[in-house]
C-alpha cells in the first residue's frame, strides 16, 4: 500500500496476489471481508446481490454498493453486522435478530411493521428502506453463502 | 415443558402460549393470511388462516393465528372443506376491496374472480377490509393514534373520535403493514401527509432529502437512547461518508 497520497493509482503489482482459490466456496463460516484495494469497480457484486434477493435482479434492492473513492479507487460498502447494532436497538418489534449460525443480523418479515426507524438509525447508511415495498432491505449474508463474495472476479470480497 | 402436537400428520413442538399460525410457519407449513404479524396481537380478523383442529373426537374449523397450541391436537392446514370456507371469506373480502391486488391474487388461487356481493355503500377508505392490523401495529409501537370509529356498517379506521391526533408521529407503519395498501400517504420534500394531518420532515443536513418526520425523531430520541445526531443525515449521504472513511483507512 502506497503511503504517498500523490500517487494517483496503484500499480497492479502492488495489489495483494490473487489466491487462485475457486470462486465458489462452500462451508466457510465468515466473516465477509471487504478488500477495497482489490476492487476494480465492476459492480458484479451488486448484480449478484440483486439477483440473489429478487427474481428480476432489481439493482435498487442490492444490499452492497460500490462507491468511487478517487481515480481507479473503489470502495464496497455493505452491512457490517455490528456487535451493538443501532438498527437492532431502535427496532420497536424485535424484527431484526442475529442469526446464530452466520452472525448476520436478519430482517424478519413476519415481525416488521415498516416504521423505517432502522434506516434512519444506522450510522453507516447500510440499512435501506425500500419505499415501494415499505420494508427495509438489509444484507443477510445470503444465509451463509454470500453471492457477492462468490461472484467477485477479483477476490475483493472474501468469505473467510 | 414443550407442547407436542401434529400438523398434517407431522409432529411439531411449541412453547406454551404460542399461536398455531406462528408455529406452523416456523415449521415450514404455508397457511395464507392477510392480517397477521408475529409482533402484534392476533385477533383473527381476516379469517383466511382457517385450519381444522381435531382434539380427541371433536374437530372444528378455527382461525390459526389466535388459536393457542394445545397438547395432542391434530391440525390439518388444507382440505376441500377448508378451501370452501376460505373461498367464501375471500369472496366477501373481495366485495369489500375489489381493486386490491393482494386479495384478487389470493382469491384467484381459490377460484374466486368476481364476488356475488357488493359494492358496499359506506366506504370512506376504499379497499379497507377492517382487519385492524394498522391499529394493532400503531398500538404496538406505543403511539396509540389509530382506532376503529363508529359501529356496525359505519365502522371505519381513523384517528380517535375522528379528530386530529397529537400522538400520531407520521411514521407510516400503518401504511406499511396494510395488506391492501389502502392507507393514503403522500411524501413531499418537506412534509408527509397521512390521516389528514401533515408532518414536517427532518431534512438531511448534507443533501436536503427528507429523513424522518420530526415527531418520529423526537419520539425515537426519547425512547431509544441513541445520540441525537444519528437522525440528521439521510441514508445515501451516510453511506458515502462511510465509503470515504473506508478509503481513508485503506489508502
Could you characterize the architecture of this molecule?
The complex is a heterodimer of chains A (160) and B (251). Among the domains of chain A are: 35-78, no CATH class; 81-138, Alpha-Beta Plaits, CATH 3.30.70. Chain A is 16% helix and 16% strand. Chain A has helices spanning 44-53, 86-90, 117-121, 147-151; strands at 32-34, 65-68, 74-77, 96-98, 105-107, 128-130, 135-137, 157-159. In chain A, the strands form four sheets. A two-stranded antiparallel sheet of chain A has the order 1-8. The two termini of chain A are 22 Å apart. By secondary structure, chain B is of the alpha+beta class. Chain B folds into two domains: 3-78, Ubiquitin-like (UB roll); 133-246, no CATH class. In chain B, helix 2 packs antiparallel against helix 3. The A-B interface holds A 1-2, 5, 34, 36-37, 65, 67, 69-70, 73, 75, 77, 86, 89-90, 92-95, 108, 110-117, 119-129, 134-135 and B 22, 25, 37-40, 137, 140-142, 171-173, 175-177, 211-212, 216-217, 220, 224-226, 230-231, 233-244, 246-247, 250-251.
Task: Give a quick precis of the structure.
The complex is a heterodimer of chains A (160) and B (251). Chain A has 160 residues and is an alpha+beta fold.
Strand order of the largest sheet of chain B: 2-1-5-3-4
Task: Kindly report the oligomeric state of this protein.
Answer: heterodimer
Main-sheet strand order of chain A equals: 1-8
From the spread of the alpha carbons, the general shape of chain B counts as globular
CATH architecture of the domain at 81-138 in chain A: 2-Layer Sandwich
CATH class of the domain at 81-138 in chain A: Alpha Beta
Mean pLDDT of chain B: 92
| Percentage beta strand of chain B | 15-25%
Summary keywords:
heterodimer; A: 160 residues; alpha+beta; Alpha-Beta Plaits; two-stranded antiparallel sheet; 4 helices; 16% strand; globular; disordered N terminus; B: 251 residues; Ubiquitin-like (UB roll); 2 domains; four-stranded antiparallel sheet; 7 helices; 11 strands
Amino acid at each position: 500500500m502506497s503511503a504517498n497520497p500523490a500517487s494517483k493509482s496503484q500499480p497492479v503489482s502492488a495489489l495483494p496476489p490473487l489466491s487462485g482459490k475457486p470462486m465458489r466456496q462452500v462451508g466457510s463460516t465468515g466473516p465477509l471481508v471487504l478488500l477495497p484495494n482489490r476492487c476494480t469497480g465492476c459492480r458484479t457484486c451488486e448484480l449478484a446481490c440483486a439477483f440473489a434477493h429478487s427474481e428480476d435482479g432489481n439493482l435498487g434492492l442490492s444490499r452492497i454498493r460500490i462507491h468511487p473513492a478517487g481515480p481507479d479507487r473503489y470502495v464496497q460498502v455493505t452491512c457490517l453486522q455490528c456487535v451493538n447494532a443501532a438498527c437492532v436497538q431502535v427496532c420497536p418489534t424485535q424484527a431484526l435478530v442475529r442469526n446464530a449460525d452466520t452472525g448476520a443480523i436478519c430482517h424478519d418479515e413476519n415481525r416488521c411493521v415498516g416504521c423505517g426507524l432502522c434506516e434512519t438509525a444506522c450510522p453507516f447508511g447500510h440499512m435501506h428502506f425500500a419505499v415501494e415495498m415499505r420494508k427495509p432491505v438489509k444484507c443477510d449474508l445470503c444465509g451463509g453463502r454470500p453471492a457477492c463474495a462468490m461472484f467477485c472476479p477479483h477476490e475483493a470480497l472474501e468469505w473467510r | 415443558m414443550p407442547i407436542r402436537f401434529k400438523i398434517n400428520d407431522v409432529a411439531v413442538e411449541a412453547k406454551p402460549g404460542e399461536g398455531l399460525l406462528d408455529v406452523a410457519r416456523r415449521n415450514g407449513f404455508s397457511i395464507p393470511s392477510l392480517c397477521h404479524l408475529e409482533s402484534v396481537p392476533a385477533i383473527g380478523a381476516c379469517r383466511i388462516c382457517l385450519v381444522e383442529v381435531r382434539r380427541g373426537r371433536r374437530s372444528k374449523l378455527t382461525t390459526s393465528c389466535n388459536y393457542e397450541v394445545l397438547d395432542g391436537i391434530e391440525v390439518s392446514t388444507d382440505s376441500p372443506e377448508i378451501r370452501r370456507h376460505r373461498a367464501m371469506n375471500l369472496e366477501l373480502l373481495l366485495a369489500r376491496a375489489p381493486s386490491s391486488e393482494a386479495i384478487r391474487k389470493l382469491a384467484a388461487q381459490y377460484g374466486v374472480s368476481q364476488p356475488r356481493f357488493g359494492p358496499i355503500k359506506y366506504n370512506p377508505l376504499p379497499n379497507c377490509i377492517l382487519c385492524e392490523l394498522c391499529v394493532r401495529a400503531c398500538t404496538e409501537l406505543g403511539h396509540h393514534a389509530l382506532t376503529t370509529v363508529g359501529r356496525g356498517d359505519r365502522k371505519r379506521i381513523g384517528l380517535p373520535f375522528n379528530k386530529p391526533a397529537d400522538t400520531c408521529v407520521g411514521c407510516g407503519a400503518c401504511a406499511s403493514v396494510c395488506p391492501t395498501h389502502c392507507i393514503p400517504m403522500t411524501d413531499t420534500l418537506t412534509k408527509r401527509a397521512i390521516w389528514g394531518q401533515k408532518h414536517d420532515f427532518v431534512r438531511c443536513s448534507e443533501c436536503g432529502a427528507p429523513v424522518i418526520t420530526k415527531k418520529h425523531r423526537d419520539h425515537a430520541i426519547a425512547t431509544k437512547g441513541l445520540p441525537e445526531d444519528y437522525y440528521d443525515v439521510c441514508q445515501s449521504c451516510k453511506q458515502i461518508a462511510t465509503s470515504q472513511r473506508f478509503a481513508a483507512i485503506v489508502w
